[in-house]
Amino acid sequence: MTARPPIRSITVLGAGIVGLSAAIAFARALPGLAMTVIETPDDPAALTDRLAGTLPSIADFHHRIGLRERDLLAAGATHRLGTRLSDWRADGVPFVLAHGERGGAIAPGTFHQHWLNARRAGKTAAFDAFSVPATLAAADRFVHPSDDPRSPISGFGYALRLDPPRYRDLLRALARHIGIIPVPGVYAGVERGSDGHVATLLLADGRRVAADLYLDCSGPAAPLRSALDTQWDDWRRWLPVDRLLLGAVPVQAATPTDDRMAVPAGWRFVQPLRDRTLVGLGYAADQTSDSSAHRILPAGDTVAPLAPGVRAEPWRHNVLALGDAAIVLDPLADANLHLAQSAILRAIDLLPGRDCSPTELAEYNQRSHRQAARVRDFQAAHYLPTGRTRGPFWKSVARLPRPDSLAHTLEQFAHRGRLPFYEDESFDKDDWHGLLLGLGMIPRIADPIASASPSEAIAATLKQLADATAALPARLPPYPAYLAQLERGR
Amino acid sequence: MGKTRVVVVGGGTAGWMTAAALVRVLPAACSVHLVESAEIGIVGVGEATLPHIRAFVERLGLDEADFMRATHATFKLGIDFRDFGAIGDSYIHPFGSFGRPLDDVGFHHYWLRLAAAGRAEPISEYSVAVAAAKRHRFAIPDGAPDDLAASFGYAYQFDATLFGPYLRRFAEAHGARRTEARIVSVDRDPLNGDVRGLRLDSGEAIEGDLFVDCSGFRSLLLGDAMAEPWEDWSRWLPCDRAVAMPCTSPDGPIEPYTRATAKPAGWQWRIPLQHRVGNGYVYSSAHIVDQAAADALVASVEGTPLADPRVLKFRAGRRRNSWVGNVVAIGLASGFLEPLESTSIYLAQMAVTQLIELFPQNMRADGIATADRTEFNRMVDMEYDRIRDFLILHYHATIRDDSDFWNHVRTMEVPATLADKIDLFRRAGRVTQYSEGLFLEPSWIAVYLGQGIVPQAWDQRADRPGLDGLDRAIASLRDHVAATATAMPDHGTFIARRNATIAA
């Protein structure tokens, strides 16, 4: 009955983190495939191959390709429980974003609506004080969440902070283990068949590589995918950072907490690894020159330009663009690798036959676009007018236009604290609540369901919760000690 | 803060669902005044429901056993479709999944591979809901999430003419006001067009802030007063009449499922309740006249008729927006999709749920936020569009060529969104992914396969395991499914036992 010929061979252009991840995942899913990986010269603009930040979804991907957390820790990864945003709010008070629920079901209605009612009525602890991971992160503590939902230390997620070169080495070793050995090569062109498909990939040294399916993982220039068309949705009007200055400083104490600081020219980030601390500055080139950026971040040593946006059709004919070849975003929400990994898994789930029928590609492209658009919205929501307004960058972002889906989200939330439903969200309601309430967006009207509960009882419950949460960090060892314990236990 | 004065127009199922939910969930935010007229009567054929109804029953805090006894309800595990894909074919669309995924790949891909090798039983053999339905057995789903005993859901089949009154008692007990009268005119704000009040034949005038139109097909406020345009879908869903007639129950077991049997100009339902069986023929008046449809129904029912055949008229489609100004239409006043998949009560429930989420409390001071209205209409659109495509599939995916009706629906051009979905499944068994909405992956798989849309291929990953090992695994799964169903009590006995516990 398998009337249609299946895909038998795949060639991956690019052997960075994205290219290796794709090669391994496809090979794991379909062991019979002939897999070729062409190692092209590194493109410094291929951000997904260079960034350390990830989201909790990375655990799923690693599970699928057969990487255990201990392998990752041995390759220099550390846990990231939360990210502290400083100077981001108008009042300058820092807050911590973490992944997971807050408070739980304390009464009919959602937790954040009860918190909002309490806040309207008077004094209550900050919203992130009800998040166990945010509270632990604020105190530089980390612990793996318990599987027991009754435990106070459960119901949250954590991400990993990768040491990119060592992570790439780990992927390379895993690839070799399953028989994939990248071969160096430089893209020179393609030959196309009468059906529009790429029949042959030409390399600069004259080699010709034929495959049923090509994955372009070579970075934003994506010469292979761009040989078919170059349609691109430009998101620069919504995401103002178009330059990253990246560097490293000597190691600080290990912490499960990243820092992002709003500065007059944009934002800085700090990600401590085992043997060094990564730092970076995101800014807008039309306001801040590269030399001014260097003065703000003296440790910066490389400038990476970026033009946020997505490829209109990441998958066309038999060429699929992945990573920066498909979507370019700054690292504000640590979503770059998450998007690449979920694109890889989605492509495997929807893998067409050798004909690469437009139906399956359309489904893939549509879902990819929906997912990317909501990550874009989440990142653009970091520039709310309720937040910081000091400095040229922040003055100009206050006037930014917004995509319709974000405008609708913000309008609904500002009115009644509700989030509209969208398919393919990467950031769940808890993530959105943490960001919008953290930035000080207080909905105009109270939720009638939450308001039905007596306010004194809710206030007392909230006080108990905040106290109980605040007491948790003191019961846990500092992160370096926890890491050492994990390593001894290995 | 002043309560928002809600006026509900119409006391059918949708009206009382709305009133009951509002007084129960938002007692501090609103007052509810329902106006109904006994002269007008209710449609009330929506006897079969979908599993979502349970969330509604729970939210109101109703006792399931009491509610079921009062509405003479039975349990429903799915719908048995007969003669749809081809005369002589039948399949059950179950409220539950087929098998279990293995290594990130859906069960049906492995099944497709085995079926192609001639080594699989029909896919229904791997569904607990189907296995229980066929054996007339039922138990409340229970167990860990991946236990077979928890791999299904259930809904109710009830007497819709008793459901409204049951909710009415509940709503009135919780403070809803009811006025029995006919509406003679609608007062509107000359500036913004909002509805300000209703004038009744009793001479009384009722004022309100928010008006919920549950007036059924008449769409008194949204359609008449606000003149919201109608989007017609009859070119895809040509059935526009139903003739209904209840009968006595036959002796023997009570089926825990609804039956839908395709007929030359539509299809016929059979819904077993505790005390009787509901029957009806849904048809296209362009293809059969009323009398012939009624005759066909009378000739085909089992049991003794308990009433004369009653004809209902409708048309498929919806108002372009369901919430306009200060008028929200819920139920048939907002749109209608024929009862093939029992979606009417679900659509009303969904609209009530959205209205609660987006409720304009303190409306006299704050008015209605445009964003709330936009969001309500966006969600209603999404539900209607998805259900519409799912319904059309039942007609279009057929080889029937025995009547003008089936020739029409088989050859008609379907919405592009559905054509894409069918093509995607035909390629390699993929289902367009929804994370929310009414019918999720197992439902689409049931109908595609049940109506002869056979994928040309399957997920390549399903080729990984050896065929013999897969064969053994699937055979053992089938035994397990059958054993799980056989261990359940008889459906009728289960209901009788529950009724007895209440009486005691």
Can you describe what's shown?
The complex is a heterodimer of chains A (490) and B (504). Chain A is α+β, with helices and mostly antiparallel strands and 490 residues long. Among the domains of chain A are: 9-75 and 163-237 and 311-356, 3-Layer(bba) Sandwich (FAD/NAD(P)-binding domain), CATH 3.50.50; 102-156 and 384-481, no CATH class. Chain A contains 16 helices and 22 strands. The mean pLDDT of chain A is 95. Chain B has 504 residues and is α+β, with helices and mostly antiparallel strands. Helix content of chain B is 37%, strand content 19%. Chain B has helices at 13-25, 53-60, 64-70, 107-116, 128-134, 160-173, 220-225, 290-300, 344-357, 363-366, 370-396, 404-411, 416-428, 441-450, 467-486, 491-503, and strands at residues 4-9, 30-36, 74-76, 78-82, 90-94, 155-157, 177-180, 183-188, 195-200, 205-207, 210-213, 230-232, 241-244, 247-248, 258-263, 266-272, 276-283, 310-313, 317-319, 323-324, 327-329, 335-336. In chain B, strands 4, 5, 13, 14, 15, 16, 17 and 18 form an eight-stranded mixed beta sheet that branches. A six-stranded mixed beta sheet of chain B has the order 7-2-1-11-21-20. In chain B, β4 (78-82) and β5 (90-94) form a beta hairpin. The mean pLDDT of chain B is 94. The interface between A and B is large, with 38 and 43 residues.
CA-CA gap between termini of chain B: 45 Å
What is the number of helices of chain A? Answer: 16
Percent helix of chain A = 25-40%
Largest sheet of chain B: 8 strands, mixed
Give the helix proportion of chain B (percent range): 25-40%
Biggest sheet of chain A, open or closed, and with what strands and sense? 8 strands, mixed
What amount of the residues of chain B lies in strands? 15-25%
Which structural category do the helix and sheet elements of chain A fall into?
Answer: alpha+beta
Task: Estimate the strand proportion of chain A.
Answer: 15-25%
Give the overall form of chain B. globular
CATH H-level superfamily of the largest domain in chain B:
FAD/NAD(P)-binding domain
Broad CATH class of the largest domain in chain B: Alpha Beta
What is the average of the pLDDT values of chain A?
95
> How many β-strand runs of chain B?
22
Largest interface: A-B, 38 and 43 residues
Spans where pLDDT lies below 50 across 5 or more residues of chain A:
none
Oligomerization state: heterodimer
